[in-house]
Design goal:
The protein is of the alpha+beta class. The protein has twelve helices and five strands. The chain has two domains: 176 residues, no CATH class; 145 residues, Heat Shock Protein 90 (2-Layer Sandwich). Helix 4 packs antiparallel against helix 5 and helix 4 packs parallel to helix 6. The longest helix is centred in the middle third of the chain and has 83 residues.
Length: 412
């Protein structure tokens, strides 16, 4: 039954001209009994055909009610006033065209316009009935009848308009919410892809640089110092194994949550900073770590961000600086963690300068990591020589640091 009603509504919306023709014909047919209606015990004092003619003209005007609603109300109101002046009883059968016109006006226009036309129509119709209408008609019918019959369609039209506006607003909000959800989903996917790309870059760059330096050292020492070459080869194996583990952990984030092969090991953080510093020794880089202030617990995202920034900064030192020493300084304040990675430059001849670390994706990735954690990063050459990376990351409150799970996915 509901489906049939919906199909009927769609059919009527698709053929508005046909609907208007049916309404006009129906009201014209109703004008015949309406023009001969009299009060009980009284005779009709006027012929029936003038009422039918005037009502028919008013019904014909309804064909333009959708495009010219105000003009249609004026025409049908004049017809109703004529019928009242001729002495016919003002029933729905003869003022039906005016009621349909007022309903259409209330549905298509604002409330003020609809109320103004309705009140004016009631005043004119009642005034006409009182002044030139038949004296035999009761005063109650002349006063209350037109007021009730004209207020009803206006109220229905206003209610229909408000309901349509409400449904349209609900639909617009739903569409906006859907677009917002899709946009947010795309934004999160992009952020996740960027995060994984940064992790892959950090892991690959760090371990491959160390492996390349260790392999070169093995080749150089293989004949002159075979024992030392064998030791470094063992460290090279450990470096590549560590690279495989971290790559597996990072790529595992792309798997489904129910994949049994997804790694579940802890994410790296500043707790592994000593191991990170030691991993650069086979490459000929001595890293000094200094801590200022009282160490504070870090959230998972900030801890991972700090580790990755130090890792990338030291990797850049190994690739570009041409120096054997670097310093990492951690400065804890009440709400900030400052990280400074400094090298003092090497002995590269001015005629063939080493590539600036700011030319690649390393500094860009470090800056994006800092911004994603709510911090900031500055990198550049020092006036006294060398390169420096300075980072500030926010520190959470004590209970927040303990409540957050230590998961690599925490870095958004």
């Amino acid at each position: 039954m509901i489906n049939r009603l919906r199909r009927l509504q769609r059919l009527l919306r698709c053929h508005p001209r046909t609907v208007d023709l049916v309404i006009a014909a129906t009201l014209f047919a109703c004008s015949f009994p309406g023009s001969v209606m009299t009060l009980p015990g009284r005779d009709l004092n006027v012929p029936w055909w003038p009422g039918v003619l005037v009502t028919g003209i008013s019904a014909l005007a309804l064909l333009w009610r959708r495009t010219l609603p105000r003009t249609t109300v004026v025409v049908t109101l004049c017809g109703a006033m004529t019928v009242a002046a001729l002495g016919y009883i003002l029933t729905v059968l003869v003022i039906g065209p005016l009621m349909v016109a007022l309903y259409t006006l209330a549905r298509l226009s604002d409330r003020t316009t609809a109320n103004l036309f309705t009140v004016s129509g009631i005043a004119l119709l009642v005034g006409t009935a009182l002044l030139v209408g038949p004296d035999t008609e009761p005063l109650v019918l002349k006063l209350l009848g037109p007021a009730v019959w004209l207020l009803l369609p206006t109220s229905l039209g206003t209610t229909t308009r408000l309901r349509a506006a409400y449904l349209e607003a609900v639909q617009a909000r739903a569409e906006h919410a859907e677009r917002t959800r899709e946009k947010e989903a795309r934004h999160r996917v992009t952020e996740e892809r960027m995060r994984i790309a940064r992790d892959l870059h950090d892991v690959v760059a760090h371990h491959l640089v160390l492996a390349n330096l260790q392999a070169g050292t093995v080749v150089r020492l293989m004949r002159s110092r075979p024992e030392e070459a064998e030791r470094i080869a063992g460290e090279l194996a450990a470096t590549t194994l560590s690279a495989v583990r971290e790559l597996k952990a990072t790529v595992g984030l792309l798997r489904h949550a129910d994949d049994s092969e997804t790694p579940s090991g802890p994410a790296p953080g500043l707790a592994q900073l000593a191991e990170l510093a030691a991993s650069f020794e086979p490459a000929g880089l001595s890293v000094t770590v200094n801590t200022e202030g009282r160490p504070r617990p870090l959230s998972a995202g900030v801890d991972l961000t700090a580790y990755r920034i130090v890792q990338e900064a030291l990797t850049n030192v190994t690739k570009h600086a041409g120096t054997g020493a670097a310093e990492v300084r951690l400065s804890y304040s009440h709400d900030r963690l400052g990280i400074t990675v400094t090298d003092h430059g090497g002995t590269t001849p001015p005629s063939s300068p080493a590539p600036a670390p700011t030319d690649g994706y390393g500094v860009i990735g470090m800056r994006e990591r800092a911004l994603s954690a709510g911090g900031r990063l500055r990198a550049g050459h020092r006036p006294q020589g060398g390169f420096e990376v300075v980072t500030e990351l926010p520190l959470p409150s004590h209970h927040q640091a303990h409540d957050q799970p230590h998961d690599e996915n925490a870095l958004a």
